[in-house]
Write a structure and sequence with these properties.
The protein has seven helices and no strands.
């Protein structure tokens, strides 16, 4: 729960970091969708998600937030490569579940059924 709360609190910081680097910008949409999934899960609105999916998503987002990286972010051109690799792997692992969540999010009738 603490990790969920931390990610929710740091949503703006995640978005800012994703947008400040060319290698991470392309992940902004999926990462923000992932944050919304975590919020809906945490609030009890959406529970149709395997725990391994939540874990992979949380790990990816926490890695982005962590100032201590394998390759420090301040190194020009290559500083965000490790962040991009981690978020790519995490998003690939959860792709199908993220798509199911997106379909649920776009369908108000499904949202009402799950409440």
């Amino acid at each position: 729960d603490a990790d969920f709360e931390y990610i929710i609190e740091e949503e703006d910081k995640i978005k800012e970091k994703l947008q400040e680097s060319r290698s991470l910008t392309r992940f902004t949409k999926d990462a923000m969708l992932l944050i919304h999934l975590i919020k809906d899960y945490y609030q009890g609105n959406y529970r149709n998600i395997p725990y391994k999916t939540l874990s992979a998503g949380v790990i990816g987002l926490l890695y982005i937030l962590n100032p201590i990286d394998i390759i420090p972010d301040f190194i020009p051109l290559i500083g965000y490569i490790d962040d991009a690799l981690v978020i790519t792997l995490c998003l690939k692992l959860i792709e199908k579940d993220l798509q199911k969540y997106q379909a649920w999010k776009q369908n108000p009738e499904q949202q009402q059924k799950s409440i």
